[in-house]
Specification:
460 residues, alpha/beta, Rossmann fold, 9-stranded mixed β-sheet, 9 strands, globular
């Protein structure tokens, strides 16, 4: 009798556990209710205008003499740095001996006028979307009628701008062997970044930036288009494709991330069987102790910018030296995380002029605060959380370079991106992929474009 009673208890316990696991699994894969989003929400100063200016205006980048002279004066008349500790390279942050050399180059050799000229070889425009002036590069290829032209919206992240794409735009807009299409590139500055206007209203998170970018493409006459994005741009783009699958024909990301609840659970479960979960690159995520050690070591800036963006903004807005040190140290670590034992800390993975372009653009436009507030806005709002946990069927391609900030195996990515049609990993490269490895980046965008066309052809 005792044995039968114990068996009943065991069976009942097993059933209860199974039911609990099923309920938990259903919770993990459940899709939140679609939030109600105002697609014309006003982000400009003051009340919403009765009629918005919809004109498209040519724009030219200008590093003017007054700015240059003031900047150089500030760089020259700075206070002296504290020397690095003995035996320390970049483990404590920006190596000030190396910073001395960079600032000297910025003053004496960085050619402001030439760099502006290089940027201006592309057509630049501004147009007002929902109260904010948005800046973008638009390059329309000249091809014969046998070549299809695919509109491609490109979105950058922090602390970058559309400048990030200047090395790949010529390739993307030129026909390549083996492909019967080419891209028309629209590389936009996110609001508050680069030459785009920032808002003075709270709530401009990745959801609403995604809405603005979709409205930008509609303004330009594109009801359907493709999207390429990384960093914060990829968060804005991910939510854009989730909200508007009818407008997006394909999504290519060099920082693909699924923030669904089920993906988080998979990450921890995967630590028990890492080679089963990711036979190609389990070492990029596991062991989790190594992963979280890196995250904790390098995410102090993230927490600061998430909680107090205006404070760090006030500290850096008035000092180009501080701005350069802060930005370059973060650019360095995501360019090559394995070079903390060098004076440059990973920065020499990029061309120094490209790095100084980014710092100069942020200094010129005084946009550190408006750009950095995205860290605070990005995780506060329920619509962002709901859409992050909503899968999308838009065909998606993942490009994973070695030193990217975040890495997920395809098993996790498919939770969010149901139709993951292409996934490519490289054992080199970093976070600013279009600057690090423009050749491989552009090749993968073309290969992904072919997969997107194939996907829609088969669907028909």
């Amino acid at each position: 009798m005792k044995a039968k009673g114990e068996m009943k208890i065991l069976v009942l316990s097993s059933v209860l556990i199974a039911i609990s696991l099923r309920i938990f699994y259903n919770y993990l894969i459940s899709v939140p209710e679609r939030p109600n989003i105002d697609l014309q929400r006003w982000w400009g100063s003051g009340p919403k205008a009765a009629k918005e200016d919809e004109s498209i205006r040519p724009f030219k980048i200008d590093f003017n003499d007054t700015m240059i002279q003031d900047l150089k004066k500030r760089l020259i008349n700075r206070r002296r740095f504290t020397k690095p500790l003995e035996g320390i390279q970049s483990e404590y942050g920006m190596n000030t001996d190396y910073l001395e050399k960079v600032l000297k180059y910025w003053v004496e050799k960085y050619d402001f006028k030439k760099r502006a000229e290089l940027l201006n070889k592309f057509p630049h425009y501004k147009t007002r979307i929902q109260g904010l002036d948005l800046h973008y590069i638009r390059v329309t290829p000249k091809v014969d009628k046998n070549i299809k032209v695919l509109p491609l919206l490109m979105l950058h992240g922090w602390p970058s701008s559309s400048k990030e794409f200047v090395k790949v735009i010529p390739t993307l807009t030129t026909p390549q062997d083996g492909y019967d299409f080419v891209f028309e590139v629209i590389a936009a500055d996110l609001p508050g970044y680069g030459f785009s206007e920032g808002t003075n209203k709270p709530g401009l998170n990745p959801v609403h930036i995604g809405v603005m970018m979709r409205n930008l493409m509609l303004r330009l006459g594109f009801k359907q288009f493709y999207v390429q994005a990384g960093d914060w741009g990829s968060q804005c783009a991910t939510l854009l494709v989730t909200l508007f699958p009818e407008n997006v024909l394909g999504y290519h990301s060099n920082m693909p991330v699924s923030l669904r609840r089920i993906s988080t659970v998979k990450m921890f479960v995967g630590s028990l069987f890492p080679t089963w979960i990711d036979a190609d690159h389990p070492e990029r995520l596991y062991p989790l102790t190594k992963h979280f050690t890196y995250v904790f070591r390098e995410s102090g800036y993230f927490h600061l910018q998430f909680t107090k963006p205006d404070t760090i903004g006030a500290a850096l807005t008035d000092t180009p030296v501080g701005l350069a040190a802060y930005l370059m140290e973060k650019i360095a670590i995501v360019s090559n995380r394995d070079q903390l034992d060098t004076p440059h800390g990973g920065l020499e993975s990029l061309d120094l002029d490209d790095v100084l372009d980014t710092v100069t653009i942020m200094w010129t436009n005084e946009c550190f605060v408006t750009a950095t507030r995205l860290y605070s806005e990005g995780f506060r709002w329920p619509e962002d959380i709901a859409l992050q946990d909503t899968p999308t069927e838009v065909p998606t391609a993942a490009l994973k370079f070695l030193h990217e900030v975040a890495y997920q195996p395809d098993w996790m990515l498919r939770d969010k991106f149901v139709n993951l049609v292409r996934s490519t990993s490289f054992d080199f490269g970093g976070h600013f992929a279009a600057l690090h490895n423009p050749k491989e980046f552009a090749e993968d965008v073309f290969a992904s474009g072919a997969e997107f066309l194939k996907f829609h052809s088969q669907k028909k």
